[in-house]
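note to self — DONT lose this again. spent like an hour looking for the file last time. sequence + predicted structure for the chain T wanted, 253 res
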Amino acid sequence: MSKMVFIGPKDKISTKYFNTASMKFASKFVEINDESVKKINDFKPDFAIVYVYNLPFDNSDYVIDVLMNLKDIPVVLYGTKSEYKVYEQSCQAKFISFILAPVLEDDFAKRVYKFWVDIHIDVTDVLIEKSEDNRKKVLVVDDDPISLRQMMNMLKDKYKVAVVKSGPAALEYLTKEVPDLILLDYEMPGWDGVQTLEMIRANKDLVSIPILFLTGVSDRELVTEVLKHKPQGYILKNSDRNTILEKVSSVFK
């Protein structure tokens, strides 16, 4: 069973969230204090939840210390947008997810479990079109397995292709491989394309990777919204093979 550590202030509310989220994991609650890091290291978790929602200011230094030591495991931060901005810069994890507070305990637990499934299953099941040549590498990110397979079939003769089914899985893949292009579904459950793009661009080692959004909708308002986030462009999923290949090849010209 996978091991989850829940780090936060020990009160009635946080305990409820811990109890709900811990049902599918071997779990440990670590209260935020000067012994937190040691207790986390002793437990050796597979991933961490850091509960910073309404956290008293005098605990912030302990949280920063914890986040700076969580280097080798995925981290979920639970808090408001302003709390996330305060702590995300301190996090040294290979990637980090965010659950916007407040949510009900059951919804919180579902999101935590989905996060773990996404990074644990998708990454181990990543499909890679193997090749020994020097073709460009393309990573396709889409929650629809049919779309992934179709895109791979269209691209595999000209490119080395890897596919993953979520934003977290894409971030995990990018810790191991750096593609020449990312095709990123704009609308996905959990992490959508925008959040995934922002997480990629927040990493100085990945910021230069060109990104094309994938979308199934040609509505002008949606296209305008897509382009606000300054990708290298977008591809309509229902485009024919030649159009998609032309869009991809234009990135490398």
